[in-house]
TrEMBL record:
Disordered: annotated segments: 1-28
Signal peptide: none
Gene3D superfamilies named in the record: membrane protein fhac (3.10.20.310)
UniProtKB keywords: Cell cycle, Cell division, Cell membrane, Membrane, Transmembrane, Transmembrane helix
Domain POTRA: 91-154
Biased composition (Low complexity): 18-28
Source species, domain of life: Bacteria
Gene Ontology cellular component terms for the protein in this record: plasma membrane
GO biological process, alphabetically ordered: cell division
UniProt name for this protein: Cell division protein FtsQ/DivIB
Stored Pfam families: FtsQ_DivIB_C, POTRA_1
Entry's transmembrane regions: 62-87
Organism: Sanguibacter biliveldensis
Lineage, uppermost ranks: Bacteria, Bacillati, Actinomycetota, Actinomycetes, Micrococcales
Length: 283
């Protein structure tokens, strides 16, 4: 009896009409493929906001610089080029002490700068120009904004007269000749020291002594003489002779002379020698 094969046993053929499911193939993953980064909507908005803020700050800086430059240019024009700060002679104030300076000449010198901006006007230049006016000893120039100047003049005032050819030279305390007159003014002492020669030390010493005197004593001095700078003598209008010596220790000499003239014993003396003030002599 032939041996039969069991249904479903190995090697058995499938029955006719039966279907067998084929295995499903899956795609192999691609090795090394880049990952795509995905930004959240919130992050994108923040980046856009930061970019907008940077652009806004830049615009503000540019606008601020533009306004600053415009203000600088405008202010410079107003200060240096406009008529607002231009010097106006109608706003010039000239003051001075003394009577030997022609103030109209001072005004004319300063008025030449009419129309110049006060910011560009050199007060030192104006000072030098005014010093060129006769008999000015010193001058100060101050800006008076917006368009004026204040000029204060110190004149050379004569303090003594010196005999010269044709009259008398009136000297100020710096031995500068203020003017020449035919006769010596009664109110000024006469210095009998020649102006000739290069050695002016004797004349300077006499003027220094005169300047050191108090007003009441200076008014009494009729003449001053000196052989050398250390031998100055004063002749008072009363005829009293004061041997002063050098111009040093003048303050002490003034006190000693006042004491001697006020003393009952020495008040009537005709000669007061205070050249050595700690050892005065009268006769």
């Amino acid at each position: 009896m032939p041996t039969g094969r069991r249904a479903g046993s190995r090697g058995a053929r499938p029955e006719t009409g039966s279907q067998v499911a084929a295995p499903v193939s899956r795609p192999s993953p691609v090795v090394g493929a880049p990952k795509v980064a995905v930004l959240s909507t919130g992050m994108a908005e923040r980046l856009a906001e930061q970019k907008s803020m940077r652009r806004h700050r830049l615009v503000r800086k540019v606008a601020a610089w533009t306004v600053g430059v415009a203000l600088l240019l405008g202010g410079s024009w107003v200060l240096f080029a406009s008529s607002l700060f231009a010097f106006d002679p109608d706003h010039l104030v000239v003051e001075g002490s003394g009577t030997t300076v022609d103030m109209a000449a001072v005004v004319a010198v300063v008025a030449q700068h009419e129309g110049t901006s006060l910011a560009l006007l050199s007060t030192s230049d104006v000072h030098d120009e005014v010093m060129g006016v006769q008999n000015i000893r010193d001058v100060s120039v101050v800006r008076q904004w917006p368009s004026g100047l204040s000029v204060r003049v110190v004149a050379r005032e004569p303090v003594a007269s010196v005999p010269v050819e044709g009259g008398f030279a009136l000297l100020d305390r710096d031995a500068v000749t203020v003017s020449t007159v035919p006769e010596a003014p009664a109110e000024l002492p006469v210095i009998t020291i020649p102006l000739t020669g290069d050695d002016t030390r004797t004349l300077d010493a006499a003027l220094a002594v005169l300047e050191s005197l108090p007003p009441e004593l200076s008014a009494e001095v009729g003449s001053i003489a000196a052989q050398t700078q250390d031998a100055v003598t004063l002749t008072l209008r009363s005829g009293v002779l004061v041997e002063w010596g050098a111009s040093s220790d003048s303050a002490l000499k003034v006190q000693v002379l006042a004491t001697l003239r006020g003393n009952e014993v020495s008040a009537g003396s005709q000669v007061f020698d205070v050249s050595a003030p700690t050892f005065p002599i009268t006769r």
